Amino acid sequence: MYKSATDISKILGDFKLKDRMFRYSSFVPRLYNYCISKGFEAGKIMPSRAFCSDESQGYPIILICKHFGTFPFNHGRVGGVVATDRHGPHAEHGKDMVIIQASHVGYDPDTKEFGVYRRLCTEHGENSSSCGKVDGVLSWYQGEYNFARNNILVERRDNQYLIMIDNQLLNMQREEGIFLKLDKLIESDNEHFISEESHSTSKYFKASKEICSLFPDLNARTVIGDKLLPEFFFYKRQISRDVESHGHLENNLFDVMPWLVSSSAPLLDAAKANTQIEFDRTFRTIVKNKSYKGKKIIYISGLNIDISPQENQIFPLTKFVPWAAFFMNEDGTQEIIEQAELYSLLQNQSDSNPDKIDMEEAIEVMEKAKEVKLF
Ligand SMILES: [Zn+2]
Fold first, then answer.
1. Ligand 1 center to residue 244 CA distance, Å?
2. Do strands 202-206 and 152-157 pair parallel, antiparallel, or not at all (unpaired)?
3. How far does the centroid of ligand 1 lie from the alpha carbon of residue 80, in Å?
4. Which listed site, 173, 216, 232, 309, has its alpha carbon 20 to 30 Å from 29?
């Protein structure tokens, strides 16, 4: 999907959050009304969600149920990956089809931090990472990055800049790990990077012009730290090719990993990247799937931002940031709707939905219904 470093940072930056958010309680009725405006038949729509298994995703699911009048089909794998092998059963369960895919990220309104979520049911209501699955995938890469940040030093001697690199980071024969793009760090006329000095566990080289420009006021010696930019390194790792959860999520994020580990909000950027990649992948599987032929279908992808609940709240104050949507009509005509257009299209829909159901009443009806005896 990605071709170059600038390509990657641009694509991540193209997913805008500012002025693109809906409260979930406003997003779902607007989406429902958009479906009706496209000719979907009330009472014959089977919604589906591809969300992470995290309990924080329950509130959006309840709202989908309330506004579409039926519990949504489950298209989701942990981390917000779409189970594309479930298109067939989904298509059989309704006349008109909706799929909502979202990766998620927690948010703490007190500290304004992304990537954490308050777990009110834990003993002390403490915060934990969110999405925890994405955090688990990122942790090995962050460990490698932190080692490199702390074991590459930049030193100025008179007017000469030197860069000292740990020997392990110079070993290009490793099968896994973080690998440096040495031509960006070291000044050299050719691909043989000749060291100025060898030490017991590291080597000194003349620093590249790019490195010099990042440390204009350097007087002595310092770790490279945050100046180890994503353009300066890449990873090698054996990743399972399975489409089930971990391997799939890790494969999705692999190319953007240098940008994620060096981001100020890694779990937010990872959720955005996963949403972008899942939309691009899944819409093709919908187009090709025979089960959806002759049906109306709307597939929408976005980001669920789970604002941690306060003490007196049962649910998070989730916000939805749409990324893109795909619409296919019975006759096979299709359209892809990009973020800005999708946002204004939803914004132009009413957030009032006369077809929404009263969940309490629906449950009461079932409680009072005559019992069906099986034996
Ligand atoms: Zn999750």
1. 14
2. unpaired
3. 7
4. 309
